[in-house]
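>> received
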Amino acid sequence: MAATSVTGLHKDGAGAAEPHNKGSERMTLGVDHLIGVRVVAAGEIALVGGAATVTFPQPLANSEAEYVVLLTNNGAVNDCTVGVKTDDGDGLFASFTIVGTGTDDIMYAVIHMG
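>> returned
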């Protein structure tokens, strides 16, 4: 394999700037492939009296309406739900509550859908 330069100059001929060295024109990686649905936070929290609040160290970008919160637990009881998702004063997703039973350990994942 020969080395090429981005300027198109090489001692043995064409460089990387030449059209035939750039790959297929149909081979693209648009921003939607790079920035799409993604997990932005995940963790585990123990319920106290059947409830818990997860507060992010820094509010997440955009409103809570752009995020999905998924829950599961390690206990035998599988009934836990997201109570309230809360934005801060700037309209950024800041926290959410979990409602369940007893003192179950709840695992959560926050996914950005925007």
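>> The beta strands are 9-10, 13-14, 38-46, 51-60, 67-73, 81-87, 93-99, 105-112.
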